[in-house]
Design brief:
Elements (H helix, E strand, L loop, with lengths): L3 H11 L11 H45 L12 H49 L1
Helix pairs in contact: 1-2, 1-3, 2-3
Amino acid sequence: MFGPNTYREQLEELGIDGMEIDVSTMEKAMETLNYLADLESVLKKFRLNIRTDIRQIRKDYLKIMKKVEESPKKSGFFGRKSDKITKKKSLVKERNNKIAAYELVENMIDNYLVQIGDARIYIRKSIEKRVD
C-alpha cells in the first residue's frame, strides 16, 4: 500500500501537466494518440490501486473498531461520554482523513482521464480534417 504522496509523485513523473499535443503531422498525431492510450492505461491502474488501498484502510479500521467494541465497557460518570464512544469517534475521524487524502488523488486521476478523452477527440477531429 502506497501513501497518497507517493501516488502524487508518480503522477508528476508522468508529466501530464503541461503536456503539449502535437498534431502538425499525421504521424505525430497518431503517436500522440498511442501515448494517450498508454497514459490512460497507467492512470486506470493507479486508480485501481488507490481504490484497493482505500478498501484496505476501511478493513483495517473495521478490525480496530471491533477490538474497541469488544474491550471491557467503562460507563461514563454522571452522563459523560464513555471512553469507547470517544475512541470510536476519534477512529472514524482518523479513517475519514486518511481516505480523503486518497480520494483527492483519485479525483486528480479522474480529471486527467477526462482531459485525455477530450484530447483524443481533438486529435481524431484533426486527423479527420486531414483525411477529408
